[in-house]
Amino acid sequence: MSSAGTYLKRPSGYDAELQSVFRPIFERIAEGNVARERDRVFPHEQVRWLCDAGFGTVRIPAEQGGFGASLEQTFLLLAELGEADANVAHIWRNHLAFVEDRLNAPVSEDNAAWIKRFLAGEFVGGGWTEANNLTLANLATTVTEEGDHWLVSGAKYYATGSLYADWLDVLGRGADGELWTAWCAPTIRASRWSTTGEGSASARQPAVRHATRRRARNRATSFPPPSGLAIRRTSIRSPCWRS
C-alpha cells in the first residue's frame, strides 16, 4: 500500500528480521514482569531497550530508515510484547498512533523532522483526554501565546506513555477558541506517585519546555473514549518555548 504525497510505502518488512531484532528483547522484558508488577517498578529501562532497537520505527518505510513493517506485522509484534508485559505493550499505543499520523501526513519539512526524531529513538506520549465528561466542545486545556513563548495549562487523564515520553502530544484550545495541538518536550520526570487503573503504563505531572502548534480540526475522530471514564490525572502548567 502506498499513497502519493505521503510517507506511506508498500510494506517490505520481513518476519524473520523483526523477530530476530525484537524477540530477544521481549524475552528480557518478560523475565522481570512479575517483580515489576509486584513492586510497582516503572519499566523505564524496558521502554528504552525498545526505543534503542527501533521499535518506534517498525512502520517507517525501509528506505526512510525504518523496518517497513505492515500493520499486521506490527500488531503481531505488539501481541507478543503484550505476552511479555502487558503494561509495556500498552505504553506504545500513543506513540505508534502518532507515527501513523505522520506517515499519513503530506511530505513536509515538519513531518520529515518527526521521522528523524523517531529514527533517533525519541518517544511520544499522549495528552488528549480530560475528566468530568469534557468533550471537544468544552475542552478546558488552553494553549496561549505569552510574549516569546506558548503556555499550555490544563489537566489530562489517560495520558498513556507520557511518563516515558520525550514529547507530549497535547490537545488544547487556543485564544481564538479553535482546537490546537501543542507538541511539548517535558523537563520534569517523576519516579512514582499514587494512582489507580493503568498500572505502570501511564501518566505523570510533566513540565513542558518546547512546543510547536498546529490546527487540530481533523483530529476529532482519533481521540480516546470520553474522559468521564478516566482514572488517572496528569497536570500540565508550564511555558512552552518556540523551537
UniProtKB/TrEMBL annotation:
<dbReference type="InterPro" id="IPR046373">
    <property type="entry name" value="Acyl-CoA_Oxase/DH_mid-dom_sf"/>
</dbReference>
<dbReference type="InterPro" id="IPR013786">
    <property type="entry name" value="AcylCoA_DH/ox_N"/>
</dbReference>
<dbReference type="GO" id="GO:0050660">
    <property type="term" value="F:flavin adenine dinucleotide binding"/>
</dbReference>
<dbReference type="InterPro" id="IPR037069">
    <property type="entry name" value="AcylCoA_DH/ox_N_sf"/>
</dbReference>
<feature type="region of interest" description="Disordered">
    <location>
        <begin position="195"/>
        <end position="229"/>
    </location>
</feature>
<dbReference type="InterPro" id="IPR009100">
    <property type="entry name" value="AcylCoA_DH/oxidase_NM_dom_sf"/>
</dbReference>
<feature type="domain" description="Acyl-CoA dehydrogenase/oxidase N-terminal">
    <location>
        <begin position="29"/>
        <end position="103"/>
    </location>
</feature>
<dbReference type="GO" id="GO:0006552">
    <property type="term" value="P:L-leucine catabolic process"/>
</dbReference>
<dbReference type="GO" id="GO:0008470">
    <property type="term" value="F:3-methylbutanoyl-CoA dehydrogenase activity"/>
</dbReference>
<dbReference type="Pfam" id="PF02771">
    <property type="entry name" value="Acyl-CoA_dh_N"/>
</dbReference>
<protein>
    <submittedName>
        <fullName>Acyl-CoA dehydrogenase</fullName>
    </submittedName>
</protein>
